[in-house]
Amino acid sequence: NIDYDPDMYTEAILTVKAGAMIDVGGDTGGVDVGIDNSDEKKVEIIVDDAALEEVINNIPPTGEVVIDVKGNGEKKELVLPSNLVGALHESEQAKEVTVIADDTEICVSPDALKKVAETMESNDKVGISIGAVEKDNLNEEQQQALDAIAKDAVVLSLNMVVSKYDDDGNKVAEEKIHEFDGKVNVRAAYEMPDEDNGKRVIVCYVSDNASVTYIRAEYIDGYVEFETDHFSHFAIMTIGGEPGVNVSLRTTEERWYFDNITVGEYEGESDQATAYIGIYNENNVLIGAKTEMFSLTGIDSVEVDKIDGAKYAMVYVWEDGTMKPLTDKPKKLDL
Q: Which H or E element spans position 122?
């Protein structure tokens, strides 16, 4: 057994390393955790009752539990047993459960863990997979919406599937988990093209009906990191970087959407600004306009109702609350 030392546990993280041991920091020993690596597409963690008891008894006060499966090849799916998921949830000690693979990482909040645990029964297993897929995995409307934003976007698929088993070990059903009642932090490897250096990385979710939701993201040391409350398809792309106003145009039947407005050379402290969008006809006459405050982090859209006779739009960016331009290079977009 692992001795309890309050001083040692203050900053500890409990690491469940598949095929190795549970590391609680220091030279305290570990708990063996088994794996089934026989399937070329997935790796399955196996935790017996003795190992499970030690896992739960040694969760540190920080509540951080890490399930580490790095080094198990290019597996596309990690499978966790119901006894581990259920025990972590029921213990109420696990404040943060993180699963780390070779090029991805997800961190599950207690509320999200509860959703997963309540979907599972005693014989069940939950499979988690994260990986890039082709745009063909999206429906036609989604592909069109994505092409209007960035044709070179990388599509990331996040899936969580509970496999149901009977008492004889036969798989009888599957249940996908799309929505969580809490947050999940995702960290995925992303190789930014050399020509995109200096640009901002953003993530968006494109729903089945082609509605686009932008998500704040960070690009750190070759990984893109973002937070979500559901699993689905997400698009990773780069924006901005060029001097002047950077913006992408997305069109529906009734509206124009001016997405991800940024200012390439802006180095101010505020991330808020005001967009002025002027709509002009073929005679260069202003026939409509809209001003709206937005976020310079590039995760906002400005909606403008379509106007008959419109030929092009001019997008200007002002300092928030004033008419002082943040750049002398507005953006012209053909409508």
A: none
DSSP for residue 242: S
> Which one-letter amino acid corresponds to residue 220?
I
Show the tokens assigned to 286.
């202003």
Cβ neighbours for 37, distance < 8 A, ≥ 6 positions apart: 19, 43, 44, 72, 73, 75
Structure confidence at residue 54 as a pLDDT band (50, 70, 90): confident
Measured in whole angstroms, the distance separating CA 172 from the mean position of its chain's CA atoms is 30
What pLDDT is stored for residue 78 in this prediction?
87
Q: What is the mean pLDDT of residues 57-85?
A: 82
What is the residue whose two structure tokens read 């402290």?
269
Helix, strand, coil percentages, rounded to 5, for the chain: 15, 45, 40
- Residue of 266, 273, 303 lying closest to 288 (CA atoms): 303
pTM, two decimals, is: 0.74
Enter the tokens of residue 289: 């306009």
Q: What is the pLDDT of residues 250-275, one digit of tens each?
A: 888 899 999 888 887 666 667 788 89
